[in-house]
Amino acid sequence: MAQGLASAAGDRALMNLEARIGRRDFNALCDCLALEEQEIRVRPLSGGIYSRTVLISASEGEWAVRLPTEQLPGGLDSAEETELLAISAEAGLSPSPVNGAPRGYVVTGYLPGARALTEADTKDPQTVRRIAKRLRELHSLQFQLPEFHAVAVARSYVDKLDGDGLTVEQRAWCEECLELAVSYDQRFAPATLCHNDLVASNILDDGELWFIDFEYAVLADPFLDLAGLAAMNGYEVDQFRLLFDHYHDGECSPPDPPVAAETIRLLRLIAYLWAVGNRERQSERNAAAETFVARMATMLR
Question: Which of 101, 203, 212, 226 could bond 107 through an S-S bridge, CB–CB 3.0 to 4.6 Å?
């Protein structure tokens, strides 16, 4: 009986996936994985705001498939991200990607023993040390990427919002974001491959740490990822200092506290504006997106 229920649930998930992405893309996914439709099982994977990742399983293996979504322009296209993932995987930092997926899809091998970190995990002192080590390895990789210029990013998100529909608080945050972006660009120059989206769920742990979802990877100062990890996961000052010290092996003095605080706030403002802009593009409200927007707003107040 239990097996029958599980099979029925799997069949529904398969039909839901086909309905969601269309028969053409569904067939293309099967082709890129060299699988027959009747072989595969599908279930959603947790993580991310828009629930856009599914697990495809068959006797030959398991794959994580990130589906396209309607988001604000920007970031790498799926082919570029797959190429970057291949380099990161070769360095042992990411699951290996699969080539030949339909445009807009990113397919990687699935790590069955791995779990996504939580925000609390990212603040554990031992995990902070491990993340710092893996970030140093990531930042040593070479790949041609768009340069991160904070003013251009901030302006693109501010311009996408309807100024007449913004609250007084939101308008003030838009202005502050642009001001802090100017200061960032004056201090930091693009130099290193950075992940640029270090929410806890984009780091997996199976005894080793793995980075996933490189959609917003950029060429930037390494400080962008350190401040981004702190910004997205609610770090306190001492937690950020520990991350910085581990990253630099204690051989570099941390930036002045105001510089770190301004950069972390800038990245929270950018994340907030990105999330609000994306929310307005969706045909229906998404609970996870609403939660993310509310949490970013709480940290900004």
Answer: 101
